[in-house]
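Order emerges. For instance:

***
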Amino acid sequence: MIILGIFLSIAAIGFFCWLLFTLAVFALPFFIGMSVAAWAYQSGAGWLGAAFIGLLAAGLTLGFGQIGLMLVRPTWARLLIALAFVAPAVIAGYHATHGIVQHTMPSEAWQQVFSVIGAFVVGCTAFVRVAGMAGTKPSSGHLART
């Protein structure tokens, strides 16, 4: 029975890590959606109106990010847009890793080390996914520039 518990724990940790890496790109839209929904609820919109406004804000954030990555030409501006999406993912990766590591090692220093490594890995994954959202420039039809 104890071995079954160990396997289920490993499966649960694997599932939540997969979920974290998959949803890391959506950390910024989720944060903005939740903030707008909380503001709408506190201003008297009710829970249904707040949920609608929050989903709308999250969708617009993701849509504007993707449109910005498609239309903006300078590389530095694309990098700023990507970093706006990656920064909340790094913070979420740090806290998720720290929550897992707190249960497995007693040393506070090693908890911080592994949390920073987890934040870095989640940030890199989110950056690769955000960079994948950016469309490549269409080719001019020539193999080489002359």
Q: What stands out?
A: The mean pLDDT is 86. DSSP finds five helices and no strands in the chain.
